[in-house]
Amino acid sequence: MIKIKDPRQVELFDRFAELLGPSAYRRMKEGWQGCFRECILYLLSDTVEKFSCHLSMLTGPETKELFSMAGLMSVKEFFKWTNNDAVDRYNVDLAIQYALNIDQGAEISRATFFRYQKLFREEDIGREVMRLITDTLLRKANLDLSEQRLDSTHVLGNMAVFSRRRLMHNTIFTFLAQLKRHHEAGYRELPEDFLVRYTADDGWCFAENSPMLTLHYGNIKATPEEQLGYDMRLLLERFHADVVISNGTKYKIMKRVFDEQFFDDGKVQLKKHPGGKVLVNPSDPDAEIGHKGAGYQVQIMQTCSKNNEVQMITNVLPQGASASDMDSLKTMVDMTIESNTKPETLLTDAGYGSDTNVCYAQQHEIEQLAPTTGKKKDQLGLEECTLDELNRIESCPAGKRPMKSRFNYDAQTGYALFFKDVCENCPLKSRCQVQKSGKNNYKWPYDAARLRLRDRRLYERTPEFHARYAPRNGNESLNGNLKQNTPLRRLRCRGKTAVHTAIYMIAAMHNIMQYAAYCRKTGKSFIGKEISTAFTRLTTFFHRFFAFLQPFPTLPGVFTFLNGWEKVISNPLRFLRSAL
User: For residue 496, which of 239, 286, 315, 506 is within the disulfide window of CB 3.0 to 4.6 Å?
Assistant: First the structure.
């Protein structure tokens, strides 16, 4: 049977106030635990509903309290807890029991924890919870969303990062282990020297040459990569007709590695650049490899207005490590529109600053500030030229006037023609962008995109740009904080679903911590004004009720009974009212 306790239900007696000292209790109420209990826990009703779909309303033993389980799944990833740590915290940690509103005596087992964790990940609840928590806290803190910054950071799952040789050797080794366990007859049919290579020491695959001469390569010793590729192809060709073996997990992994790492044109050849969307470790088939490393990465957008007491994350986008920042900006802009967190100004690094991205942001009424790229340090560009009001070049960087200058507004293209003698005798020719046109002229072509880059590069030289762009550096401190104080640097899980859920929960809990800091700075209470008013009215009612009964001498016994209960009832309410 399903057990659900409304988090907004107030208990008459607070057991935590009796178990903790006044100072410790106050710190807990004013910390993230109080924030989670009062502001976040009741928001997890959708999560509880999804849990309930997998449980029975009428039959079976009583479930654990579902709001507390949903809360445990939310906070577990932020702290560096193992699964056993999460179970222990739920059972014995008073701070966690207070935050999750856990009843006295409630406890869970590891099996129960794993069951709810599986549901939490499979239902993709993390993304919804992060969005709901973020929207609620942004509204409560009344943050200014007009200025935001965007950056990405690398995330490594709980897996080893193999080199290419190690990956190939491990793939063959695990396939042979599975083959020997389930199809020993097929395993015994393989050549003896073949089996020796993958049952003895594997140090040979890191040598300069493989340990044997093969008929496939004649009398030339194969490199370790070629040897591994040939052995992989031998296994694939031998067992591809066997339906049972070819449908096995290890066989499919081996085929994927072979297709991604090798060319097969009669002689197996290793690909020099296999790309980023390749298998990095069989234990995590979804991980990719990029310029930041193997695994995953996450796009993080955060507020950066000076008007805010604290800054919060507004949007996150988990990705594979091979994803490009340049291609991610459009997705992030769309996410801000969908979540109603669109900024007026977006600060990014040069990795996002293509002309296409800036125009796309401008189409959605977002000003993107990002350094331009595509120009060498000493190269002269259009910004060193003088242009008239019709976007025609009046003079080149050397101050020479062109013989002809045109700009077509319909085609959005222009050019300037210079005499051959002018350009060939110019000391800046090696740094200039002019091109030979015919026998006697040099041409400088440009289009609307280059004109926009010119305007951006000129603006980058102004003090105004540097002052407005300075807050973008806060992205580095945010990434450093998350990697240093949370498991974001290396998560305790692997697989796309688990990793994405962990990233969403880390971002959500970061915002909860920030909101708790905001309340401490401003003196704002976690409990809403309407709840505080309800407590005040309830307390006033009890006092007036008991005052009404005092003049009646005919009810001495009743009055004595009620007078005793007045002390029990009114004092806790008066304590809660003062705490508000």
Answer: 286
Q: Which two tokens stand for residue 381?
A: 């560009």
Are the CB atoms for 298 and 500 separated by under 8 Å? no
CA dist., res. 331 & res. 333, Å (int):
5
- Cβ proximity of 117 and 90 under 8 Å: no
CA angle 139, 141, 144 (to 5 degrees): 80
Picking from 438, 463, 488, the residue at the C-terminal end of a domain is 463
Place of tokens 């900024």: 343
- Residue 87, SS3? helix
**Do 179 and 119 fall into the same domain?**
no
Classify 389 as helix, strand or coil.
Answer: coil
Report the chain (580 residues): mean pLDDT per 10 consecutive residues.
Answer: 83 84 90 92 89 83 89 92 94 93 91 93 91 94 94 94 90 92 91 81 66 52 82 92 91 94 85 89 92 93 94 96 93 95 94 93 95 86 90 90 91 91 88 87 92 93 94 91 92 93 95 93 72 47 53 48 44 43
The first and second tokens of residue 114, run together, are 């794993």
DSSP conformation class of 564: H
Task: Name, in order, each residue with C-beta under 8 angstroms of 471's C-beta and a sequence gap of 6 or more.
Answer: 147, 149, 304, 306, 347
> Structural domain of residue 97, as residue ranges?
1-123
Q: What angle do CA 19, 20, 24 make, to 5 degrees?
A: 165
The answer to whether the CB of 287 falls within 8 A of the CB of 167 is no
**557 exposure class (CB count in 10 Å sphere: 0-12, 13-18, 19+):** exposed
Sign of CA dihedral 367, 370, 374, 375: positive
